Amino acid sequence: MKTEEYRQILTRYWGFTSFRPLQEEIILSVTAGRDTLALMPTGGGKSLTFQVPALHMDGICVVITPLIALMKDQVNRLKSLEIKAMAIHSGMSAEEIDIALDNCVYGDYKFLYISPERIGTRLFQARVSRLNINLVAIDEAHCISQWGYDFRPSYLKIAAIREFIPDRVALLALTASATPSVAEDIMEKLEFREKNVLRTSFERKNISYMVKRVEDKATWLTGSLEKMGGSGIVYVRSRKRSKEIAELLAANNYSADFYHAGLPQEMRDRKQSAWTAGTTRIIVATNAFGMGIDKAEVRFVIHWEMPDSIEEYFQESGRAGRDGKKAFAILLHSSSDRKQLENSLKKKFPPVRRIKDVYEALCNYLQIPEGSGKNTVFDFSIRDFVSKYRLPVIETFNSLSFLQREGYVEFTEEINNPSRVHFVVGRDDLYRFQVANELFDDFIKLLLRSYTGMFTEFVAINEDSLARRSGLSRDAVYKFLVKLSSLSIIRYIPGKKTALVIFTEERLERKALVISSNNYLDVRKKHVFRLNKMIDYVESATRCRSVLLLDYFGEESDRCGICDVCRERNELDLSKYEFDLILDELKKLLSRNSYDAAELVSKVSLPQEKVIRVLRWLLDHNKIVRDDRNLLSWREADLFTR
């Protein structure tokens, strides 16, 4: 029975004896050859839904993901389980990609992780038809939708892979955050042969969602963390603030550290490991923190500021309580936050002339002549770029985002690429070289003792480690590697840490660079829509927080009973039915006319003492306002429209 075989694979490699909700249904769907869209919340075990069936079937699974660091992390995890996996991304040379694809064709590999922009390259398309593909998995599938919060044009190229794979091969699209319209868009853009959505409930019954209205966030944070047990995350919007708040917490005797994308990779790894192990209790971080988090016992996630969308908030807050035990997701909100959002929106959508200025500066910075540069990959330091051209950092970053959205460039997060070595001679020729060149013999033996697989692929090495083992200086190790490379014994690619820019089109003249005004305004409109939904969540005082979140994703649910809104309503000693009935009548009356309190209460056809309790609660939460004549009216939501 196949389901039993899937469970055996699950137990053999991952040690689990049963699947989580929906995992088995997804596996059965894709192994039946059905294109499948799987909606699973953060931490729901998405990767197993393609890893288990791929191991069961003959051939190789192609996994498409935009996050290079996550790609490398998953490949390393699979290799640690003795599962052959390969990654191909823009940080690799053409020679490395060529060898990697050859290994996938001939080397019995089970997984090929690839970034979406690589799919459109001639090199990949020339080889993909020779791969025995058993499944195509698309992670972060919401990136294909212009309605989604993280649209990437490179995702629109994914459907082209259908030309090179048999009809029996299914596409599995995975995301942790998709509204109904985004889900429809994903299936259309990926050319699903039939609509097929499998979803698990996004409801997190153990998380208590709360919005705290506080003017002095620092005082609230330092005073409240003492009452919270366990470890947690504090999310902030700026790198500078992450450090400031971590230092504030440390000054108040909390074990805290900060984390953001501008830190060196080794430091980020060290900080995340210390937090995962419990050495650090609280990590204060930008949204760069989250990928690859493997910590179930997170008791709280606090947002210092409002995220730009429900999708972001749901994903980040969902890192709390993955062990199923009680946890808190708290969003801090002050009267000044609205002004900050206005300023943020202006920077998010720089003027079209600014976007064109950044494009021209970028082309000059990378020395790309007009008509050239298509499909070329460049190392890119945004810090050096903005410094050289005296550009504002945030506007520049958002201008690059628009250029990416328009399909002119792709840019990646900083990649920590270690040094790599590949032997370009066979073992017999290498032996003859060692005999004839005694000076290199000991060093070559050291390489071969330290690392495996260098005859078939590029292998990551560490010069410092080789220096310690050999007793040589790091500089001497480097010179040996360079010399062996110049003698065509090895190919040595020194390590580097850099972000990348890929020009997906040749450089255009300024007048030929089109930033569609309709597209610009449409993107802004969608962003404002998502922002308003986030504001609605924060400023709502009458609807259960969990119900608001789930409703956004098209899921119906009963109120949770444990969020801040539900707790206050519980104190009224009214059932949900009674409260909602009275609320609906009051809203209907006050939306049409203004009334004094006594007249209003008399017009509601329910017990007066209960109506008064709900009325007082609505006044306390500023949902009903009183004018200078002492008349009551319903306060309409003042959402963000600029």
Could you explain the architecture of this structure?
The structure is a single chain. The chain is an alpha/beta fold. The protein has five domains: 2-199, Rossmann fold (3-Layer(aba) Sandwich); 207-335, Rossmann fold, CATH 3.40.50; 341-415 and 499-524, Winged helix-like DNA-binding domain superfamily/Winged helix DNA-binding domain (Arc Repressor Mutant, subunit A, Orthogonal Bundle), CATH 1.10.10; 419-494, Arc Repressor Mutant, subunit A (Orthogonal Bundle); 572-642, Arc Repressor Mutant, subunit A (Orthogonal Bundle), CATH 1.10.10.10. It has a seven-stranded parallel β-sheet, with helices on both faces. Strand 21 and strand 22 (632-634) form a beta hairpin. Helix 2 packs across helix 3 (48-56). The longest helix has 23 residues, at 517-539.
Spatial strand arrangement across the major sheet: 3-4-2-5-6-1-7
Strand content: 15-25%
Strand count, sense and barrel status of the largest sheet are:
7 strands, parallel
Taking all residues together, what is the mean pLDDT? 88
Distance between the termini: 59 Å
Q: What's the count of strands?
A: 22
> Might you state the CATH topology name of the largest domain?
Rossmann fold
| Count of folded domains | 5
Assign the CATH architecture of the largest domain: 3-Layer(aba) Sandwich
Helical content (DSSP H or I, runs of 4+): 40-55%
